[in-house]
């Protein structure tokens, strides 16, 4: 039921194309739960964490408590995730931490958090190049006597990642799926060997004793554990590209935390069982990262050890890919909202990737690698160990701020549907626990780095986050005073471009001298225009549903559904609010004419379109009362006639009655059709009257099948199909 008020004219409205605002949207519906889990867990690099991070923690802290530290941090992060994913159900933005702080604590602190996030994630990503190059160089020397410089290998990985960064995100997820599956399988094999060959013939649980957390150096132990989890929060970064952000991000985050927590704790504990809790510290000190391979090689043979060494390299590569994508999306989010240069907010129209942000991160990584070579830095210590530890500290700071932001966000909203545990209790507990971890980390930072307490790096590294945070706050304050339009759009994500649109063209008046304008809460007023933008899932339902309700309240379908006009005006607002609430989460909502026109699309690529809530029938019964049977009949008729082949479904397109005939509806349809043509994807709709058939034919649609009759002598719907790559008339 697409079109009742699309337009009565065939004039073509201007729709901006190319790498401007229209391309300031990431590719939608590319990632499911499993794909996001692959990104999250790959960023954690499990085999590297256990084979290197955990072993070095045994050696450096001289304690056996890393297994219990992993378990405790997993619980802390699970508590943090409760509020974090609750926010993700209401805010869909690639900026994640930055956006949540901006929405919960204010825009100025949000900009400060964004600077911290960009530095922390870049440190994690670029630091891993050192580990990748050094580990692979060591293996090549051992296996083939090839003396290849670490930086040459790092630049080889850099080049591949630069290419992957501008490709489709789902292609990246498939690469990570293969690498991660192999990595986890070898870890499980090692765990079985270690547990079935315990030192002294007895399985012990000494390393899981809580008393290990009371030993000296517990701060170093905890920050090492936290660093191993960094990347778990990445689910929200991919929310705009997921198929159902409100469910996908939550499920992926919980699965990732549980999986990684259990994998780390069990793997680190199994290693202490195989080596012996009384010998693990000495063995780790002597053998370092070779420990896990030397032990398992004695039982499995050299071939399995060599496979494990290869997978250490692929583990680092997978983490590099994952963090590169995270950084690119943070830069994209900040560019889209013009906190950083607007060019960073562009996406490739073919792949949907944030290619400018990706290239910017690629250039920065190249410069750091070159400077490291010139300065003679150690790739394992100076780049990987210090870089990832430094980045992990920044992520802890961001998690503390985000936990507090969750409380601030929900304390100002009473209609979110979240319970007290999600809104206040869990984030509050997480904030306290993370503050303890942060304090211990800062207090024992010299211990963590293995440097004297007076060494300059011990205070320069942590203090740099304060410097970047203050710089971000100062920049946010500048935006507030000098660039109010940009400031007002901070944290709005996909809605930010709508908020700025009204500021970009000169004011114009109609024949009566009045500036025609439409407003939506939190967005600026402005003239009616024909640019089309995607509406983010965190946008208020009311302004969008109002357009549909007012546009569809008159006409044959409306009169057949609810003959009494007074009853119809009572029922329609609630009905369309329900439809829009669902569409913002499961569909694709576009706005035109400064939210005076709306189109709603649903992808039907992997099955029928998810066009209405699961409890639709019950809600219609409550809302529509005696008119419910006809609403049920309408939905059943459309479902039965719906085509089965992959396509995108134009469910609704509507324009406010007083603004119809200006080409806004045409612009809304054309905008999405251009993107579908690039993707070679067909489209389908049901026209609600014969008057608009000619317009749809002009846009490439053709009638398909028989008209859809409605019972009780009701009107007919006209199904129409548009094949892929139809450019005529556009």
UniProtKB/TrEMBL annotation:
Membrane topology reported for the UniProt record: Multi-pass membrane protein
InterPro entries: AA-permease/SLC12A_dom, Acyl_CoA_acyltransferase, APC_superfamily, GNAT_dom
Gene3D superfamilies linked: 3.40.630.30, Amino acid/polyamine transporter I
GO CC annotations, alphabetized: membrane
A single MF term (Gene Ontology): acyltransferase activity, transferring groups other than amino-acyl groups
Cellular localisation: Membrane
Keywords: Membrane, Transmembrane, Transmembrane helix
Membrane spanning residue stretches: 36-58, 64-87, 108-128, 148-167, 174-193, 213-232, 252-271, 310-332, 353-377, 383-409, 421-442, 457-478
Span of domain N-acetyltransferase: 641-725
GO BP term (any one): transmembrane transport
SUPFAM superfamilies referenced in this protein's UniProt entry, alphabetically: Acyl-CoA N-acyltransferases (Nat)
Protein name: Amino acid transporter
């Amino acid at each position: 039921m697409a079109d009742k008020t699309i337009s009565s004219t065939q004039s073509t409205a201007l729709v901006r194309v190319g790498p401007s605002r229209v391309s300031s949207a990431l590719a939608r519906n590319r990632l499911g739960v499993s794909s996001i889990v692959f990104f999250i867990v790959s960023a954690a690099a499990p085999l590297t964490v256990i084979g290197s991070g955990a072993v070095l923690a045994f050696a450096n802290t001289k304690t056996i408590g890393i297994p219990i530290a992993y378990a405790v941090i997993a619980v802390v992060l699970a508590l943090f995730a409760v509020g974090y994913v609750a926010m993700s159900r209401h805010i869909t933005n690639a900026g994640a931490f930055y956006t949540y702080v901006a929405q919960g604590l204010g825009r100025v602190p949000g900009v400060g958090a964004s600077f911290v996030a960009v530095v922390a994630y870049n440190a994690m990503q670029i630091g891993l190049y050192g580990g990748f190059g050094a580990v692979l160089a060591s293996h090549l020397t051992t296996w083939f006597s090839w003396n290849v410089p670490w930086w040459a290998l790092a630049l080889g990985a850099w080049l591949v990642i630069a290419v992957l960064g501008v490709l489709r995100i789902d292609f990246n997820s498939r690469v990570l799926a293969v690498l991660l599956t192999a990595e986890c399988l070898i870890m499980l094999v090692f765990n079985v060997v270690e547990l079935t060959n315990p030192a002294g013939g007895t399985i012990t649980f000494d390393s899981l004793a809580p008393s290990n957390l009371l030993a000296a150096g517990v701060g170093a132990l905890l920050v090492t554990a936290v660093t191993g989890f960094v990347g778990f929060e990445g689910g929200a970064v991919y929310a705009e590209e997921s198929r159902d952000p409100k469910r996908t991000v939550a499920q992926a985050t919980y699965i990732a935390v549980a999986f990684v927590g259990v994998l780390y704790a069990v793997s680190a504990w199994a290693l202490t069982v195989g080596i012996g809790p009384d010998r693990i510290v000495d063995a780790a000190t002597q053998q370092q990262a070779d420990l896990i391979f030397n032990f398992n090689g004695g039982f499995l043979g050299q071939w399995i050890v060599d496979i494990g060494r290869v997978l250490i390299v692929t583990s680092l590569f997978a983490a590099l890919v994952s963090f590169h994508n995270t950084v690119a999306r943070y830069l994209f989010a900040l560019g889209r909202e013009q906190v950083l240069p607007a060019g960073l907010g562009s996406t490739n129209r073919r792949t949907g990737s944030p290619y400018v942000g990706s290239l910017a991160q690629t250039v920065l990584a190249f410069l750091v690698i070159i400077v490291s070579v010139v300065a003679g830095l150690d790739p394992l210590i100076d780049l990987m160990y210090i870089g990832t530890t430094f980045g992990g500290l920044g992520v802890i700071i961001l998690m503390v701020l985000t936990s507090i932001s969750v409380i601030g966000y929900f304390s100002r909203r009473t209609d979110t549907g979240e319970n007290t545990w999600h809104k206040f209790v869990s984030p509050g507990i997480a904030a306290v626990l993370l503050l303890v971890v942060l304090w211990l980390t800062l207090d024992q930072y010299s211990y963590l780095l293995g440097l004297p307490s007076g060494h300059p790096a011990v205070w320069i590294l942590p203090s740099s986050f304060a410097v970047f945070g203050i710089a971000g706050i100062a920049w946010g304050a500048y935006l507030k005073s000098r660039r109010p339009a940009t400031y007002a759009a901070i944290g709005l994500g996909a809605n930010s471009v709508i908020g700025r649109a009204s500021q970009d063209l000169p004011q114009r008046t109609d024949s009566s001298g009045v500036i025609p304008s439409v407003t939506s809460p939190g967005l600026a007023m402005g003239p009616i225009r024909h640019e089309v933008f995607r509406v983010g899932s965190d946008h208020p339902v009311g302004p969008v549903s109002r357009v549909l309700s007012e546009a569809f309240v008159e006409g044959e379908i409306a009169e057949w559904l609810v003959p009494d006009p007074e009853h119809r005006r009572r029922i329609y607002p609630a009905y369309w609010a329900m439809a829009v609430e669902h569409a913002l989460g499961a569909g694709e909502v576009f706005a035109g004419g400064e939210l005076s026109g709306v189109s709603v699309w649903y992808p039907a690529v992997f099955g029928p379109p998810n066009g209405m809530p699961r409890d639709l029938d019950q809600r219609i019964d409550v809302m529509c009362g005696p008119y419910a049977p006809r609403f049920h009949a309408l939905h059943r008729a459309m479902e039965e006639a719906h085509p089965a082949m992959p396509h995108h479904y134009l469910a609704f397109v509507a324009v406010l009655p007083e603004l119809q005939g200006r080409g806004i509806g045409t612009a809304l349809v054309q905008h999405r059709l251009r993107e579908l043509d690039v993707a070679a994807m067909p489209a389908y709709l049901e026209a609600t009257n014969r008057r608009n058939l000619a317009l749809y034919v002009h846009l490439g649609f053709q009638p398909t099948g028989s008209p859809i009759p409605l019972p009780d002598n009701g009107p007919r719907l006209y199904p129409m199909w548009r094949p892929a790559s139809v450019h005529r008339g556009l």
